[in-house]
Known about the structure:
Alpha-Beta Plaits; CATH 2.40.50.1010; alpha+beta; 9 helices
Amino acid sequence: xxxxxxxxxxxxxxxxxxxxxxxxxxxxxxxxxxxxxxxxxxxxxxxxxxxxxxxxxxxxxxxxxxxxxxxxxxxxxxxxxxxxxxxxxxxxxxxxxxxxxxxxxxxxxxxxxxxxxxxxxxxxxxxxxxxxxxxxxxxxxxxxxxxxxxxxxxxxxxxxxxxxxxxxxxxxxxxxxxxxxxxxxxxxxxxxxxxxxxxxxxxxxxxxxxxxxxxxxxxxxxxxxxxxxxxxxxxxxxxxxxxxxxxxxxxxxxxxxxxxxxxxxxxxxxxxxxxxxxxxxxxxxxxxxxxxxxxxxxxxxxxxxxxxxxxxxxxxxxxxxxxxxxxxxxxxxxxxxxxxxxxxxxxxxxxxxxxxxxxxxxxxxxxxxxxxxxxxxxxxxxxxxxxxxxxxxxxxxxxxxxxxxxxxxxxxxxxxxxxxxxxxxxxxxxxxxxxxxxxxxxxxxxxxxxxx
Length: 452
């Protein structure tokens, strides 16, 4: 029989969870389960992390997109199933404002541009609605409709292998009766599996504290998530992680996590909540303030704007590098911009940095007396130096300048894994060959039968 599934449909959705529970990735899996008999999926569900500096995000500012082929005659049915499932699973909360959008066929360039902006900037709901009305086949939202922003951005960010880096995350889900309880698995088995597949996985263990990072802390349905380069390896790793509670289901997502994608499109513009990437000249020695945060003033090379630059306490040992900076050092700063009203100025909140150049620093001392070799003192403004020991005076002597040995070297510095935001590219992913394609493996998702 001819293949009647000839229409490409993109379904984007966001903001269905809250700090009290829920999970947008679990909604994705549920929609996949319901649609699977009727459609052909042509990509993994895409988990897209947008600008991490947005203050009203729930947790990781992640949105989802499903891309599939469907028979023209049942497009409306597919739309109805997706919206009904969203309403069934959304976590009702005053701060939860879900949105779902549907795009047929090729994604318009305007939506692609919108998705790039969503990685770095703040986007107005009104701007989003204008684009949704113009280009989306259908759309649905609740509350103030903020979820439409992530939903549209997820559709526009296709993670095209010819131009964008991407990774995978395998998420396992708990049975409903276990949600809210302590997650129960063998951490030693995670460490062992991570070591075994170290070339193909990342950020499952914190390299500094040795803390296992695969389990979230909140009351959502995720048991654990493992991150890597190859979906087949993630399936193998899942089999080797010992769990002491039943897994109800799992799903593999293709994602921009661990790719620095936001910094690919960031600039040195100083604008509240924007992603920032730019050269900064250090103007002062960093200081440690209450709470263990390290901060210094710097000047942005591209626009000569003076800003505070901060490495916060959760970045742990990364702060030790920042403490070693001295005036006239040059760094390439990666982070987010935050306007501090109490200081009437902007702060660059560092996510990582590259030390580009380390300035020469000198220790200045009064000269030694040429007669008795004792340390001399100033004899007054423009009067040179005098010796308190023997009385010798010399108007022409100057301070001795001795070079200070710097313990700071040039290079890239990244906080440990437990301190990294989802989008940050970790050291383990550097120097890997670029992936130029992807394919759907067997069993990329599964819902296990309920026990009778």
